[in-house]
Specification:
heterodimer; A: 111 residues; alpha+beta; two-stranded antiparallel ribbon; 5 helices; globular; B: 303 residues; mainly alpha; 2 domains
Chain lengths: 111, 303
């Protein structure tokens, strides 16, 4: 579990940018979406999601916008910015290169 | 909202130390998150108290969450760093370029400092305000010192009326600042030990003002240099994220500038005076942390 957390630490920004890049999302939705899509592999300590989102927002990669729901409640939806989109493209290609290199070494050699 | 969750949100708010509007937004965001979570847990058949307990557990330590959010917000831009270090920079230049003898420059500086302090105080008290605020209190203190040189009889009036009023003003602004964040109070008081150090090195006892002016003139380049060092420290403070690093920068800059005073004052600052100044500096920079704790306890009891 600790190893998984360590691996996730370096990938948090990429995961968040990827999800928010597909559609604007709010915090709770992001946690549920990550858990569902990764079939339970990615489980955020919920409180730590918000510092990560705020770091991305301060870096200008995403922008938070408050929306009023029909019930009158307000929710902060995060939208990706142009800078965030180009960062995501760069991170995606870095990740694919890393994955390809890892696979070349870690996969068992087939005859 | 359930008591445990209200307590959790209060605890986050108490440790955030950001400007009130950012704090409000962050708490609203966490509140919405908690409401969503509670609803889902209740729908899964859990009681209100069970749901609240799980919710707090899933969110994790309030202090850790607050610290991480603070660190996401606490780094100022280079523009803010420049703006915050500007009063030290201008004060340093005033001496380094020998402008301190020109009444025009002093007036410009006074008007600029007061305008920036008043503007910042009424516009959300941003981080860059606090160094300006510190310098805006300087004329109040200097005027008090000058009043002591009035003819006999009048100086008693200064002691009985002006000094208590001035102390009350400085104290109430310091308390207001500590309520926002004790580190800002230390940032505001940053030049005080250096000013006291140079004041002692100049020794304004006796032939005032001729002897005093001559000494200031002699020390002016080093006075300038010590304030330029404070400007660099403030810019670094604004750019750092972690609180302990910010506090360390302030203490280190205090030690550095007092050492500069002792070194360049041609032995006019004795070792005991130097050590007392270091204690004064540590007290000025770090006692606001204790005062903040005390003020919070009083506020809690009041509410």
């Amino acid at each position: 579990m600790a190893q998984r957390r360590e691996l996730m630490k370096g990938s948090t920004a990429s995961l968040l940018l990827c999800l928010i890049g597909q559609q604007p999302m709010y915090g709770y939705q992001i946690i549920k979406e990550l858990e569902t899509r990764s079939q339970g592999y990615f489980k955020f300590k919920e409180g730590t999601l918000y510092p990560a989102l705020h770091r991305l927002e301060r870096a200008g990669l995403i922008i938070g916008k408050w929306q009023t729901l029909p019930s009158g409640r307000q929710r902060k939806y995060y939208h990706i910015t142009d800078k965030g989109r180009s960062t995501l493209v760069a991170k995606r290609s870095q990740w694919q290169e890393f994955l390809a290199a890892m696979n070349l070494i870690i996969q068992p050699v087939t005859a | 909202m359930i008591t445990a969750l209200s307590y959790y949100l209060d605890s986050v708010r108490g440790s955030l130390r950001l400007d009130p509007s950012s704090e409000g937004e962050i708490i609203s965001e966490l509140e919405t998150h908690i409401e969503d979570e509670l609803q889902e847990l209740r729908e899964a058949g859990l009681s209100e108290d069970e749901a609240a307990e799980i919710c707090v557990k899933l969110l994790g330590s309030a202090k850790l969450v607050a610290r991480q959010i603070y660190e996401a917000h606490s780094q100022g831009t280079w523009r803010q760093a420049l703006l915050a270090s500007m009063p030290h920079l201008l004060f340093g230049l005033l001496f380094a370029l020998n402008w301190w003898q020109g009444i025009g420059w002093l007036l410009i500086m006074l008007i600029l400092v007061l305008s920036m302090a008043v503007y910042g105080w009424w516009h959300g008290r941003p981080t860059w305000l606090f160094p300006w605020l510190g310098y805006s209190l300087l004329p109040v203190v200097v005027a008090g010192l000058f009043l002591l040189y009035l003819p006999k009889g009048w100086s008693w009036l200064a002691i009985l009326v002006y000094i208590p009023l001035a102390l009350w003003l400085v104290y109430s602004i310091t308390v207001q600042t500590i309520k926002r964040d004790w580190l800002y109070s230390s940032l505001m008081l940053l030049p005080v030990p250096t000013i006291i150090g140079w004041f002692l090195a100049v020794e304004p006892i006796g032939k005032f003002p001729e002897y005093w002016l001559e000494r200031i003139h002699h020390f002016a380049p080093w006075i300038g240099l010590s304030f330029l060092a404070l400007a660099v420290a403030v810019a670094t403070f604004i750019r750092l994220r972690q609180r302990w690093l910010k506090a360390s920068v302030l203490v280190m800059s205090g030690l550095l500038t007092l050492t500069m005073v002792a070194y360049y004052a041609d032995g006019r600052l004795s070792l005991p005076a130097f050590l007392v100044l270091i204690l004064v500096m540590l007290n000025l920079y770090l006692s606001p942390a204790l005062m903040e704790r005390k003020l919070r306890r009083v506020d809690k009891r009041g509410s």
